[in-house]
Specification:
By secondary structure, this protein is mostly helical. It has 9 helices and no strands. Helix 1 runs antiparallel to helix 2 (about 20-35) and helix 4 (about 60-75) runs antiparallel to helix 5.
Length: about 200
């Protein structure tokens, strides 16, 4: 029961104080569930982020769902309790947005062109970019990318995939879904042959 309360409180804080959408939340989620509480390992969190990106829906809510499930399952509880954990984390991360949208929607259209409101949104933009960059940097660990000294092959393949994906999206406007599928197929074939 304590774990469910901690999950609710943690994801309520994340939903309330994270700006920039799901990608802005990722670094905060990782800091809470991996570093602070130790509910998941860094590699488990990376897997959850990958699955959250590929499933329909916002990545922040998807991550909360999977984290809630995995955290309860890792505690030794049964699967049906893990499903409740996923519901608790998902509901908690959405609750602040629901309440704020109900309160703000009535007044936003009226004051959206007000100078103070525009200034607040201008000030939030750099913070959002910083949160998204922080999420990317937190995922670039040796568990995910490898290490140039310990696992040079994995590191080289990871950097090459990163550069190819970046170039494909930025300059050739290839769909991120297609890039994910191709990277997954390549990884399965390559690491299946090597491993």
């Amino acid at each position: 029961m304590t774990l469910f309360i901690e999950l609710f409180y943690t994801f309520l804080k994340i939903g309330l104080f994270s700006f920039g959408g799901g990608y802005g939340m990722l670094s905060v989620i990782q800091g809470e569930v991996v570093t602070r509480h130790g509910w998941l390992s860094a590699s488990e969190f990376t897997d959850i982020v990958a699955v959250s990106q590929m499933t329909p829906g916002p990545i922040g809510i998807n991550s909360a769902t999977y984290v809630g499930y995995t955290a309860v399952l890792n505690s030794g509880a049964q699967e049906w309790l893990a499903v409740i954990g996923s519901f608790v984390a998902s509901f908690a991360v959405m609750l602040p947005s629901i309440v704020l949208m109900l309160l703000v929607s009535r007044f936003f259209m009226k004051y959206s062109k007000h100078r103070s409101v525009e200034d607040i949104f201008k000030a939030l933009r750099p913070a959002v970019v910083g949160l998204i960059a922080s999420a990317a940097l937190l995922l670039m660990t040796k568990e995910n990318f490898g290490s140039p000294t310990e696992t040079p092959l994995q590191f080289g393949v990871s950097v090459a995939l990163f550069v190819i994906a970046f170039v494909a999206m930025k300059f050739f406007k290839i769909s991120p879904i297609l890039i994910l599928l191709l990277a997954g197929i390549f990884g399965g074939v390559f690491y299946g042959m090597v491993g």
